[in-house]
Amino acid sequence: MKKVSLVSPCYNGESHLAYFIESLLAQTYPNVEFIFVDDGSTDRTGEIFSSYQKRLEAKGWTVQFIRQENKGQAAAVNAGLKHVSGDYLIWPDSDDILYPEHIAKKAEFMEKNPSCGIGFCLLDKVNENNLDKIVGRMGRRPEKEDNLFEDLLTNNNILWPPIGSIVRMSAFDETNPQREIYEGRGGQNFQMMLPVASKYPAGYMNESLGKYVVRKSSHSKTKSDLLQQRHFNLLSIWINTIQNLHGVSEEVKVQSLAKACSYFDFVCPAVKKVRFLGIPLVSVVTRNNKKKVKLFGLLNIMTLVKRGRQIKGRLFGIFPFSVK
To answer: Are strands 97-98 and 202-214 parallel, antiparallel or unpaired?
Structure first.
């Protein structure tokens, strides 16, 4: 039976950590390595986890507790990745709920689909004030010709909650041999999935295997954050991740950067408004039907010309590209 590694970052999880760990105690799959990363919590997170550790180990699981100063979820994921020794990896948030056969069915699916580098299940959506009431169902609905890599670049039909994913570690290590993602504030799930999707197909389970809990305090639900600083943070993470793709041609990187930047420019114009110490972090200047995308008001990332449904331009003034 293959080993499944489960990495969970957590910051101040006192209000929800118990129901997450209770769902782990109910898991039917025995060969699990659980790596819990406390990202500098200031509440009772560490104490609550310690109260459950022996019960988790009694299941036959290997349990590791890592504590670091607060650096954000991406940094916490990095800390956990260094200790992963399993054949498969799941990295759920510490406020989600796994159904009892969650790990078993994901591992079984990956065993039956050896060509897949990443697998997705369906999820039931619930609100934090009523965990028993399902308010929706989430899942990726691939087109006839599934292309997860292309869709990730432009946020098209993606199941973002990490509880919905499982990756094959041999594929992950091949495409991210350093086991390192950019430690920005957010975007860690994009970084975990994109390298694998650049080389391996995805597979889909037509069954809900967990509950994604919507919380009011989630930073991704905060409108001001979403419309301003968050978009710039995500743009910088997208660029960094694409530039560091392993085993991908420069041509593919250029095309991918073009698609990602054009998405953030034309679909998310709020990135133009983000400033730091009065300096525009991202600015878009329009002249003669051309858009110039600049960082810090100086570095010209690319020139864009939109003609109908086609975008043409140059990246860093050198690499030509076109996107339909």
So the answer is: antiparallel
Above 60 in pLDDT, residue 210?
yes
Q: Would you state the torsion angle of the CA atoms of residues 193, 194, 200, 203, taken in this order, to the nearest 10 degrees?
A: 40
pTM, two decimals, is 0.81
Give me the phi and psi of 81, to 5 degrees please: -60, -30
**According to the per-residue pLDDT averaged within each range, which of 98-112, 245-259, 306-320 is highest?**
98-112
Angstrom distance (rounded) from CA 46 to CA 52: 10
Residue 88: exposure state from Cβ atoms within 10 A (0-12, 13-18, ≥19): buried
Cα 300 to chain centroid, rounded: 28
- Domains in the chain, start-ordered, CATH in brackets? 4-216 (3.90.550.10), 223-323 (no CATH)
- Give mean pLDDT, residues 179-205: 92
More confident residue, 297 or 185: 185
Q: With cut-offs at 50, 70 and 90, classify the pLDDT of residue 79.
A: very high
Q: Which two tokens stand for residue 295?
A: 């960082």
CB distance 79 to 68 below 8 Å? yes
Q: Pairing relation of β-strands 202-214 and 279-280?
A: unpaired
- 88/2 Cα distance (integer angstroms): 8
